Amino acid sequence: MLGRWHVMDPSSEKYYGVSPYTYCKNNPILRIDIDGKDDYVVNKNGYVLFWKNTKYEDKGDRVYYFDGEHKPKQVSGKPITIMDNKLMPRMVENQGKEGQTTTYGQTSNIHDAANLFKFAADNSVVEWKLDVYENENDGSTAIIITDHKEGSVESGNNAKRRTAVNGRKKIDIHSHPGDESQGASASDMKYINSRNNAVYLKRNRTLHEYNSKKSNITTIQINTVEDLQKYI
């Protein structure tokens, strides 16, 4: 089969290290998508699944929640929109690597990072982590991580190494999906390594700052992604 493509990837100007004729994420046979925008789902165990190519020029990749383990036929509920069109493919790709038990991805779009973290934490039954690194040359970069476990999530060091993100960690947030007490656990307080540390409680959508001596310094209500982004 011979395929010819005459139109550049419409998002190619964002990624100069990739050929502008890299069409549909290197799979033009299986992924027919005129604008590079796709639909994804996050399931209750925190796995990110590619759902379908969109047929119209939506602004960004849409992410839905799906209460199942396999690719859905239909989804309901309101999606979020991720403008960085490399974030969701990275999550799927990294999740599928041999020997990996972690789903993670990085982006310099802090709104996207906060949006995905909150959406995933609010809808799944596992812990999620949002780390933000600051670099003088590159600005801020966020990494979103889950180990698909209800009671823990990795420190973020492995994900930082795998993604080759540089800089000093300035924000360290992780979620608690259950009925944990408000504030950080003893192990959370023990392994502090950033300027700002906080726990996001799914049950009442509150953010609790902590340090090595106190488990709950400040409580912040997080009703929207904008509330979370203000903290970051």
Poorly predicted regions: 1-10, 14-24, 28-34
Fraction of residues in helix: 10-25%
Mean pLDDT reading: 82
Total count of strands = 11
**Relative strand content:** 25-35%
Largest sheet: 7 strands, mixed
Instruction: Determine the structural class based on helices, strands and strand pairing.
Output: alpha+beta
| Number of contiguous helices | 5
3D architecture notes:
- The chain has 232 residues and is α+β, with helices and mostly antiparallel strands.
- The protein has one domain.
- It has helices at residues 87-95, 110-123, 157-163, 186-190, 225-231, and strands spanning 38-43, 48-53, 61-66, 80-82, 103-107, 129-135, 139-146, 168-176, 196-201, 206-210, 218-221.
- The strands form 2 sheets. Strands 5-7-6-8-9-10-11 form a 7-stranded mixed sheet, sandwiched between helices.
- α4 (186-190) links the parallel β8 (168-176) and β9.
- α2 (110-123) packs across α5 (225-231).
- The model is unreliable at 1-10, 14-24 and 28-34 (pLDDT under 50).
